[in-house]
Predict the 3D structure of the following.
Amino acid sequence: MKNYSFAMLKGDIFGGLTAGVVALPLALAFGVASGAGALAGLYGAIALGLVAAVFGGTQLQVSGPTGPMTVVFASALTTFGGNFQLALAVVLIGGLLQILFGFMRLGGLVRFIPYPVISGFMSGVGMIIIILQMAPLLGGTPDSSTLSALFNLPSVIESIRFDSMFLGSLTLAIVFLTPIKISRFIPSPLLALFIGTQLAVFAGLETAVIGDIPAGLPDLHFPSFSLEHWSSVFMLGLTLALLGSIDSLLTSLVTDSITHTHHKPNRELIAQGLGNILCAFIGGLPGAGATMRTVVNVKAGGQTRLSSVMHALFLLLLLLELSPLASQIPLPVLAGVLIKVGFNIIDYRMFKLASSSTRSELMIMFCVLLLTVLVDLVIGVTVGVILAMGMLTWRLAQQADISFETNHDYHLTEKPGRGVRIMSIKGPLFFGSTSHMLDRIEAVDSIMDTEEVILDCRRVDLMDLSAIVMLDEVVQYLQGRSMLVRVLVKPALREQLLSAKSSSFNERILFTSLHDALVPDAQLQNLHELDSMGIMQEDY
């Protein structure tokens, strides 16, 4: 604070207020869409926004309810038949898990999640929001399930309420077509909220509205659940924790790229967890770092974390003094705002990169997208990660190359003698490529004049436990066929194999150079005979 100036204070105040203005309609809309009510959205934006701003690891990040977190919370409410306390228990477990992730220093792992999985999931969440908001946009009753919303869409269209459709269409026009010059001063969602509400009130349009929003501080809640619901609560809480962590840390990366700073991922996870725990105790909607609100904060002049605090205090002031005004906001207007959010969440960059992507990557992306929309968020992400791991395993396995040669291609004077076969292995040797090597062993056995085999693994950089076990079996198999076996490896891998404490791997079999491995046949045979008599090498 020594270098904190009045200009920085001015920037923090203006940035925080601007972010708060953008957050207000989104918090109300997310609260209504979740099924918990507009007030839950405001509570979540205030509680999480304040805690994450004070304790977070990203200076200018603005946190609050987001699309993915809202979808998970709505799913929890549906799963438990509208039981609000069980849904809050999910938020509590999610916050505790986020804190655990932070203490386990898992914040940096977000960079290892494959992009097609993230892209498919985010696009799926965007499509879920759009599909679920079509009914309230046209004056119908909102559905809690994407499939039921799709099946009921024809009946909703047949019974359109034209006042609602007019307000919804006007909202879409405002949020999509407002020029950037205007939206810089008045965010298009807030403009749509104001115009739509005033038009509905003064024109007397018949449409559903938010309803009464009591002013004042929230009541204290005590989330609880029984052992009967433990597995469902934990799985939904884990989903909430994972999505909230990914969402927040991706926003942190965006913030770093704009501000040229470096965030502290594990501290950010702990702060997000603390904020979501507070949301669980006050009945607030869970959330995460919000990219759009963070960018608005930075662009509007935010300099320090005080700007994010100002965003939360501004929403708190609105809650205490102006909440009755929000009760007249029409639901079609909120639906139009959320549909714009849904379109913003969809990852169009992946579609642009389709021509340069592989078929497997596109398959993973579309698989995650369809499963997220039509089945379940957790299943979509889980299947996507498993498919990505399988694709990586297959690609690494393809890099492994195993060949036989009688004349070595290394530029050395030593040459294998008659009856000596060299099995050259290169590339990663792990569980995905071991079966290929085992299949090739039959080729050695079929060569009648083979008396000695050299397994040249000097171009193997990776060898996991499966590969060590496989190599042990190969050595025993060839020795069982009365063949003399020697293994060439790098010094580090030689120490790894010696530490395996296997009878197949000893000083007389493992070598680091071809010169040492190509000892005279009689000398090597003598070593094996001494070994079969139980005489140790040091005795020899």
